[in-house]
Amino acid sequence: MKALKSFCNWFKSPSKMAVGVVVLLSAIAGVLLWGGFNLAIEETSTEEFCSQCHMNDVVPEYRQTIHYTNHSGVRAACADCHLPHEFIPKWVRKVQAAKEVYSYFMGHVDTKEKFEAKRLEMAQNEWKRMKANNSQECRNCHNFNSMDFSQQKSVAERMHTAAMAEGKTCIDCHKGIAHQLPDMHGVKSGFLSEDAKKEEK
């Protein structure tokens, strides 16, 4: 009982050294947690990680596009397009992606056939997300204000000029830019890139 009373008295008025130890340990724990969270974000944002579930569907498609191999050698990885770069939106998207990982392991899209059956729904969800954020992930690399339209093909110059005037965003026209389009029969697809139009037919 005496020991308990002593502890309570100490707890009510801890020494400066005890407070210092608690503050130091809290700071170390905070740094470790912060570092661990960031490491987890980085490790789960690599093509290798994404390929664990998507090697039989969208990864091979992506590897056939200009975003994977091009004359400049600049590659847009999975996370560049599917994960916001800003801190809070990145965490929100990661939480949403956890549900998608759960769905995969529950067997909802764990085969190519199941994936194809859900492709339109998943694509529409992603297009909606990109439309809502003004295609921010695209704009991290491609920005109307940085484009020299005179260096573009005439059709691209015309389409980009019209898109700017009409307030359109990248995903309005470039739905089929990095992956095959789902079966779009009976779906109003809006403007698509030339490659996307070919995929749609």
UniProtKB/TrEMBL annotation:
Name the record gives this protein: Cytochrome c-type protein
Localisation per UniProt entry: Cell membrane
Domain NapC/NirT cytochrome c N-terminal: residue ranges: 15-184
Membrane disposition: Single-pass membrane protein
Presence of keyword Iron: yes
PTM section of the record: Binds 4 heme groups per subunit.
An example Gene Ontology molecular-function term: metal ion binding
Entry annotated with the keyword RNA-binding: no
Cofactor note (record): Binds 4 heme groups per subunit.
Top-rank taxon: Bacteria
Pfam families to which the protein is assigned, alphabetical: Cytochrom_NNT
GO cellular component terms, A-Z: plasma membrane
Residues binding heme 2, per UniProt: C78, C81, H82, H179
GO process annotations (BP): anaerobic respiration; denitrification pathway
PANTHER family, sorted: CYTOCHROME C-TYPE PROTEIN, CYTOCHROME C-TYPE PROTEIN NAPC
Primary localization: membrane
Residues that bind heme 4: C170, C173, H174
Keywords linked to the UniProt accession: Cell membrane, Electron transport, Heme, Iron, Membrane, Metal-binding, Transmembrane, Transmembrane helix, Transport
Organism the protein comes from: Pasteurella bettyae CCUG 2042
Cofactor section: heme
Positions contributing to heme 1 binding: C50, C53, E100
Binding site for heme 3: C138, C141, H142
Family statement drawn from the similarity comment of this UniProt entry: Belongs to the NapC/NirT/NrfH family.
